[in-house]
TrEMBL record:
The lineage of its organism: Eukaryota, Metazoa, Echinodermata, Eleutherozoa, Asterozoa. Keywords: Coiled coil. It comes from the Eukaryota. GO terms for biological process: mitotic cell cycle. This is Centromere/kinetochore protein zw10 N-terminal domain-containing protein. Pfam families: Zw10_N. It comes from Patiria miniata.
Length: 95
């Protein structure tokens, strides 16, 4: 059997531990909310910077693709013309 003093101390200790846990949980919840806000702002900032860069890059990609197609078309025409020019004439015959 425990003494009255021990029982009172144990009861108060449980109360203090419960209060301490409640306080700690409250502080952790506040800290979690602060971190959520920081993450939201960081992601939003990155996305706000990312989207214009992505759009600009897509425009440049489209321009390069168009230029590449034009270069390929020109190259094919040059090959055709070169082929026509390099066809050897009929051999000359002397009589």
């Amino acid at each position: 059997m425990t003494s009255l003093v021990t029982d009172v101390l144990l009861a108060n200790t449980d109360l203090l531990e419960k209060e301490d846990l409640g306080t700690r949980i409250g502080k952790l919840s506040t800290h979690i909310d602060e971190i959520k806000g920081e993450i939201y702002h960081a992601v939003h900032k990155k996305y706000a910077n990312y989207r214009p860069t992505r759009d600009s890059t897509q425009e440049l990609h489209n321009k390069v693709q168009t230029l590449s197609t034009e270069m390929q078309t020109l190259s094919n025409k040059i090959k055709v013309l070169t082929h026509k020019i390099t066809i050897p004439p009929a051999p000359l015959t002397y009589r």
